[in-house]
Specification:
Layout (H helix, E strand, L loop, with lengths): L12 E3 L5 H11 L3 E7 L5 H12 L3 E3 L9 E6 L11 E2 L4 H12 L4 E5 L10 H10 L2 E4 L8 E4 L7 E3 L5 H14 L3 E5 L6 H8 L4 E5 L5 E5 L10 E3 L4 H14 L4 E7 L6 H9 L2 E10 L2 E9 L4 E2 L2 E2 L11 H8 L2 E2 L1 E4 L12 H12 L2 E5 L2 E5 L5 E5 L5 H11 L4 E5 L12 H10 L10 E7 L5 H12 L2 E4 H15 L11 H7 L2 E5 L2 E6 L2 E2 L2 H4 L2 H10 L3 H12 L6 E6 L2 H5 L5 E6 L2 H11 L7 H20 L12 E4 L5 H18 L1
Parallel strand pairs: 1-14, 2-13, 5-6, 9-10, 17-19, 18-20, 23-24, 25-30, 25-31, 26-30, 31-32
Antiparallel strand pairs: 2-4, 3-4, 6-8, 7-8, 10-12, 11-12, 14-16, 15-16, 20-22, 21-22, 27-28, 28-29
Helix pairs in contact: 1-2, 1-3, 1-6, 2-3, 3-5, 4-5, 7-11, 9-11, 13-22, 14-17, 20-21
The chain binds 2'-deoxycytidine-5'-monophosphate (DC).
Length: 673
Amino acid sequence: MTGGTRTTSGPALAIRVPGDKSVSQRALILAAIADGESCIQGLLRSADPLATGRALQALGVEIDALEGAATAPVRVRGTGLRSWRTPATPLDLANSGTGARLLAGALAAQPLSAILTGDASLVRRPMERIVAPLRRMGASVAYLDQHGRLPFRIRGGDLRAISHASPVASAQVKSAVLLAGVGAGTGAEVVEPRRSRDHTERMLSAMGVEVEEAGRDDGAWVVRVAPPPARLAPLETTVPGDFSSAAFFLAWAALTGARGLVVRAVGLSRTRTGLLDVLSRMGATVRVSAETSLGGEPAGDVRVEGQGGLRAVEVGGAEVPEMIDELPILAALAARAEGVTRITGAAELRVKESDRISALVDNLRRVGVEAEELPDGLEIEGTRRKLAGRVRCFGDHRIAMAFGVLGATQGCDIEVDDPAVADVSFPGFWRLLDQVGRTDGRPSPPECVVVAIDGTAGAGKSTTAKAVADQLGFRHLDSGAIYRAVALGLLDSGREMSALEKIAKAELDALQVHVEWRGRSMEVWAAGARIPNRKLRTERVSSLASRVSSVPTVRDHLLALQRSAAQGPGLIAEGRDMGTVVFPDAGVKVFLVADARERARRRLLQNGQAAPSSDRIEAEAARLRERDARDSSREAAPLAAASDAVRVDTTNLLPEDQVDEIVKLVERRRNRS
Ligand code: DC
């Protein structure tokens, strides 16, 4: 996967992209047939997964925080393999081919009847490829409008196991049959002409289903799932960044050449990353680092540097399924590559969100690039000419984003007719492209390294955070002091405290809580005056701060204030939600925990008790446990470790060892970028 040999230098621009669309959709559907509560972190909240989630809710599946903030974990309460109920209305999968096809597979096993439909683009896409095998398994499907197209009514029930020889390498077809076989308890086998992406198989394995896979000499790929156990284990998963979203920015880096760009924590399944080899062949430098596993998928940081001048490539055969969604952005790269790029073996592109072969050729010509359609692909002649014109998206997010990227490079004046379609898979795409584009060619501002230190009450956060900040010369953000300042302001205002949850934004504005920095140290101000620390630490303030901090309006109000502290070489951000909500992109995240009795002992010592008795320690420990339970169960920003946080148990650590451990994590992180 590694490309050219030139070593990279200088700080690259680092970004993150939203969660993987394919993984998000599958996680929702599979969690909905599991037995028990699944927790999905990093779910992509874009139009496609939301449509799938809403359809599952209409089938009676309880899903929490489906439409919550990007960082909020989604909880799905699965009630078993065949527990869905007949929906009151047709299930509208909007633009989502994955949602419609996978859900049809899962529905085939349910003893109920449901109508599936979608938007104007989805009702043109072929469905017979999944309907035929599902009928063979025993499901009954009636097309309600046109043969082979949505809407259709599916009636599921008793199925039999089949071996399905799919004429296309399509993960959606494969997943539909496997889901039907798992749901019905029969198992199933799929033979595909080439291996397609394997997210469903990985997730099924994680849930306790036996999955066997093997390649055949003729290049075909066989996947077999055994009859599943009666209960599927719920999922505890973190969705990696979507490689197909990252691809647009990696391509941008290859096109602009000026400096490297890193996309962090992105999914790197071999069945998806074909573009990386192609970028190397085109002459860009590709480097993968920080390899890890997220949600059972390989993941890591990908860095791409353009080396000035790309070369045309030939792409076809086995490579195509591994980069099927990246062919639109490859076409944009080819427009600027020297020579003729030829893409073949990609007839599948004709039945994507649009006929991508004709959409690409039409649009390339519109902006001044010579391109030809082939029955199963296209040819593009790269050029250095100025490219200008208005492109048509045909309701297709990847067409919009591919030409958006090309348009964001030098010598292009390209308008996209329907930029909003990017939301289908990549909310925030245009804002990120704009940000990245504005840094093009200029030296990057020195990056402020953010270190998030969260943890339970009394685990040693504040002493550790302060010492780490001193050692590294970073700012220390004590977010608890800001919540305390709000509590103090409310107490001073004489407000009635019984209905805190109804507090208005105007009331919070009136307190004028803000932070000023004296060098690296933080001062908290309110109503035009600095608040001395001792006033923030009284029992009355502590107890109101704990209530105030559970009010969402208060948390939202303080968000921008906390984020603005990230300036200078680095910030140690200490609190309860630093790594999850305030700085979800923090370079280092630490979650401190310690045994409750040890925390109680430390607290009593800190409060001046020389040798606290065992009873007092136990009483204080009980109070701490109670507070942890309250902080972890509150609705707004509950105390929880970020999925990528390093847990440090301080029960048996000396304070200086805790500090050392965190400083080392920061140094390692700095050496990486
Ligand atoms: O860390 P501390 O004890 O000074 O925090 C005061 C209160 O504010 C405490 O009840 C927890 C809450 N808090 C929070 O909810 N989120 C933060 N980021 C920091 C503190």
